[in-house]
Design brief:
about 150 residues; mainly alpha; two-stranded parallel ribbon; 4 strands
Length: about 150
């Protein structure tokens, strides 16, 4: 893949990326615990070996144990931290997927602009001078958020 070779300096074949994704999926499936039995067994083992959370911390339960739903897996309504007119029910993963698509486009436009400086505006129009934390360019103060970890 030319972009990876250009960025990282070595070649990665598309089938290698697919193999790594399949391996990752397999490992993740080992950590999924619909019944809760894996978590209990690992916690017992960790208690015996005094290696607390060394493996059980990776377990993904069937139902999240998160009283605050920080990833918004329940898709409850929330407002943008700096603009209460922007309302969403998207989860962290929904937003991550969108960001990933945006990043891939930004990388494509960046590499094109490296080859041809006349294409700089295409990249700049995509990123729109957005703030990294808020995704906006209006420089508003964050007022709509709850620091749950300070409770």
């Amino acid at each position: 893949m030319p972009a990876i070779r250009q960025i990282l300096g070595f070649e990665i074949k598309p089938h290698q990326i697919m193999e790594s994704l399949k391996d990752w999926h397999f490992i993740e499936s080992l950590f999924y615990d619909a019944s809760g039995d894996k978590l209990k067994a690992l916690q017992t083992l960790e208690t015996f070996t005094k290696a607390y959370n060394s493996l059980s911390g990776y377990i993904v339960p069937n139902e999240p144990d998160d009283p605050y739903d920080v990833m918004n897996l329940l898709h409850t309504r929330w407002v943008h931290p700096s603009d209460d007119t922007l309302v969403s029910t998207e989860s962290f993963f929904d937003l991550y997927d969108k960001a990933q698509l945006l990043a891939m486009e930004a990388i494509r436009l960046f590499l094109a602009a490296c080859e041809n400086p006349d294409l700089d505006d295409d990249l700049l129009n995509l990123i729109k001078d957005r703030n990294y934390n808020l995704g906006t360019n209006d420089h508003k103060e964050m007022i709509n958020f709850d620091l749950i970890y300070e409770k």
